[in-house]
């Protein structure tokens, strides 16, 4: 049996175990990783690097930074202020948090960081309003994920240059992506996602956690207020960490270094005790993240992504309707990004989209932005992006509850993106 077939079988069994829910997800993730290694689908040395992956270190550190911030009274005071402004309206709360998250997502090219900054305040606000954070955290995660770099601000200003690099690399320079083209293409999607998450998403969210996580158990502990020095240190460290992440490109410091420094500072300055810092890390979700890297790596090493991409290109060449072509180039990367890292899917599919357009003599600008948009909007599974495991730990979600909440926004994303982009950037 070929490694490709073996890899797909392991992926299917892993997904089935996640949905079944009888085996802890962290155990499933590491078992799946071992299976990929033992069957030759994944190189052992490559697998080992996933435990020290920058995203893995970043998410573990953000658990600690967020816990330190939550430990201060600053979060509670913010929650009281938000509740007064919102006058007890959940819709007004969602409006404020969605707008701030979407704005942060334009300057911080990491949904994990955006969600990690916003989640502690959202949890405190929910506690103040006497509702479960499970009602609001996944909608907040959707905004943190789907709106990243949608506007030409911060990291979004580099999107056009990156896409033009793909066009040059594939010798199709008859067309150029302008600086504002990604914004023009993704703006309706950004608005649609924000409107859905403000007015409708909470109606489909669970009223209480579906599963209890270690992070939620720590959160329930009633601890006395910190001494004045540690109190001030907690929110100063959090604010400085946030500012460093916003200006990360100018500082030329890796995001994981910033997050790790913030986590260590929380302990050094006494905001968290060493035991509290360790308890704040949701290890099952960290192992789930490592396992998701392994699945994406195995799919890449066995060539599964390229096989799907080539089939997609051949199929697109048989279609005459540009909207159907756009739909195919959105839905396939979108679904594949649920089990592979978005950057890997983009590396595979954007060149394939360019070559398909080149063969048809078509304008590739809309199609490649569509592929990019699909890859940046993955939120249906914990393998989609590191922000999802973090959200699952905070909100107490399992796979079925994620999928249930994802179906409507995923459909909206697909319809709005394809209809708008293929109209504004026609193939011919």
From TrEMBL:
Alphabetical list of InterPro entries matching this protein: Cit_transptr-like_dom (IPR004680), DASS-Related_Transporters (IPR051679)
Subcellular location as annotated: Membrane
Record keywords: Membrane, Repeat, Transmembrane, Transmembrane helix, Transport
GO BP: any one term: transmembrane transport
GO cellular component terms, A-Z: plasma membrane
Membrane topology, record value: Multi-pass membrane protein
Origin: domain of life: Bacteria
Membrane-spanning parts: 50-70, 90-117, 137-157, 189-211, 232-249, 255-272, 281-299, 319-337, 344-361, 406-427
Protein name in the entry: Citrate transporter-like domain-containing protein
């Amino acid at each position: 049996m070929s490694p490709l077939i073996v890899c797909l079988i392991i992926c299917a069994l892993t997904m089935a175990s996640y949905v079944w829910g009888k085996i802890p997800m962290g155990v499933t993730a590491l078992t799946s990783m071992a299976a990929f290694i033992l069957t030759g689908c994944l190189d052992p040395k490559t697998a080992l690097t996933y435990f020290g992956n920058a995203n893995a270190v970043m998410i573990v550190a953000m658990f600690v930074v967020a816990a330190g911030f939550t430990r201060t009274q600053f979060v509670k005071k913010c929650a009281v202020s938000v509740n007064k402004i919102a006058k007890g309206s959940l819709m007004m709360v969602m409006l404020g948090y969605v707008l701030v998250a979407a704005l942060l997502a334009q300057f911080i090219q990491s949904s994990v960081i955006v969600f990690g900054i916003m989640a502690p305040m959202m949890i405190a606000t929910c506690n103040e309003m006497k509702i479960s954070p499970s009602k609001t955290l996944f909608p907040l995660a959707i905004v943190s994920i789907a709106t990243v770099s949608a506007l030409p601000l911060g990291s979004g200003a580099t999107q056009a240059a990156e896409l033009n690099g793909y066009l040059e690399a594939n010798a199709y320079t008859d067309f150029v992506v302008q600086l504002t083209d990604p914004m023009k293409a993704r703006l309706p999607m950004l608005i649609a996602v924000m409107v859905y998450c403000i007015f409708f998403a909470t109606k489909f969210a669970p009223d209480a956690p579906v599963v209890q996580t270690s992070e939620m158990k720590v959160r329930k502990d009633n601890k006395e207020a910190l001494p004045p020095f540690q109190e001030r240190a907690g929110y100063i460290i959090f604010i400085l960490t946030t500012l460093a992440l916003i200006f990360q490109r100018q500082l030329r410091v890796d995001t994981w270094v910033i997050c790790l420094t913030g986590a260590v500072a929380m302990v050094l300055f006494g905001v968290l005790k060493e035991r509290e810092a360790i308890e704040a890390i949701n290890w099952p979700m960290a192992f789930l993240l490592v396992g998701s890297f392994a699945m994406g790596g195995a799919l890449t090493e066995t060539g599964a992504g390229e096989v799907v991409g080539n089939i997609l290109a051949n199929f697109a060449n048989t279609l005459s309707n540009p909207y159907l072509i756009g739909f195919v180039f959105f839905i396939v990367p979108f679904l594949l990004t649920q089990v592979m890292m978005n950057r890997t899917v983009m590396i595979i599919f954007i060149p394939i989209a360019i070559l398909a357009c080149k063969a048809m003599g078509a304008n590739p600008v809309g199609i490649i932005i569509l592929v990019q948009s699909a890859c940046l909007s993955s939120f249906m599974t914990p393998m989609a992006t590191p922000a999802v495991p973090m959200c699952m730990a905070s909100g107490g979600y399992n796979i079925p509850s994620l999928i249930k909440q994802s179906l409507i926004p995923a459909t909206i994303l697909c319809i709005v993106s394809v209809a708008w982009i293929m109209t504004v950037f026609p193939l011919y």
